[in-house]
Amino acid sequence: MTTREARTAARGVRGDVFDPYCPTRQLLDRIGTKWTSMAVKTLADAAPDEVRFAELRRRMPGVSQKMLSVTLRSLTRDGLVSRRVEPTVPPRVHYQLTDLGRSLEAALAGLRTWAEDHMAEIGRANEAADREDDAG
Fold this sequence. Notes:
Layout: H1 3-10, H2 23-31, H3 34-46, E1 51-52, H4 53-59, H5 65-77, E2 81-86, E3 92-97, H6 99-135
């Protein structure tokens, strides 16, 4: 994010999500990934407790160490997750949702509910599209 974009976002000015440089669009790009959604859900399920990195990875099947690290770094940078490091050898790193992160979890929960409620309908639409592709 450029300095100008950061100032615009800080003022609370709504942007144009069709503009690739819009801060709102950039934020939606970051929070709209499957790993972000899974990390936020996993941390919300553990609340109010902290979760160590290895435990997060175990609870998120399929995520690589690198992808989880990148996701948590982004969530921490955006103020959605807090990070606490114990100065041990090796260091123990703990993560927890912030108040802002908990507000994101509420929004993501609505999206998950919508997906679950409409999964069968979407599946049928995909099957119909596949049949059309095969026929034509």
